[in-house]
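re: that chain from earlier
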Amino acid sequence: GVVLQPDARDVVDALAATVPLGLVTRARRREVDVVLAAADLASHFACVVTRDDVRVPPPAPDAYHAAVARLARRRPVRASAVVACVDARTGADAARAAGVRAVRVG
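^ sequence. v structure.
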């Protein structure tokens, strides 16, 4: 199985019940799909953008631009209204370059 960070499931459950969630990652799609399925979290995310979905992965902003565009298909949203929870400086830099606010976690 997949071992999640403490409280991760509770946080994702609470957020997904309130706002559409997107996942942006430098990981490959096949890896992400396996982890989300094993953790039973795939249905919590309105969109998932992996390095396989963009020409240039983070730290380029492309993946965050893609995630905002996909979230906006569900309901109007501006990049400035999106918050990225990131675990690395490169992710924060990529989010900010896309106009998304970034919060470091972990």
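The radius of gyration is 13 Å.
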